Amino acid sequence: MSAVAYVDILDGDKEGYIRFKSPEGAQTVITARSELQKKYNWNVELLSGDHEQRYWQKILVDRQAKLNSPREKKRGTEKLISKAEKIIIARATEASKHIRFDD
How far apart are CA 5 and CA 19, in angstroms? Predict the structure, then answer.
């Protein structure tokens, strides 16, 4: 079908946005609207005008919120200990997996 650039949806939401790599990709999906409605029960719309402007504004607001959010900075031995703990946990979960062979 069409190359997807980004999917903007949160878990549990009933509505989301799909950005395609090109406008032609979005048009292809719009032409297949009835198939998507029948097969997946999806209602597909092409954003334009004011709705499109509001969506791009939402993207900018979300991006600023992400960039301005405080994040924990670990340095030195604290960072090394954190990495080592992650590795130990990963190895422990990998070792606890059972491999079963069918006869």
Answer: 5
2 vs 27: CA distance, rounded Å: 9
Rounded to 5°, angle at Cα 23 from 17 and 24: 115
Are the C-beta atoms of residues 4 and 19 closer than 8 Å to each other?
yes
Helix 33-40 vs helix 23-31: crossing angle, to nearest 10: 60
The single residue listed with the structure tokens 């499109």 is 52
The answer on pLDDT for 24 being more than 80 is yes
pLDDT in tens, 42-78: 888 998 899 999 999 999 999 999 888 887 788 889 8
The strand ranges marked E within 1-103 are: 4-8, 17-20
Sequence-distant (6+) residues with CB within 8 A of 18 are: 4, 6, 7, 8, 29
Total residue count of the chain as it appears in this document: 103
Burial of 32 (0-12, 13-18, 19+ CB in 10 A): middle
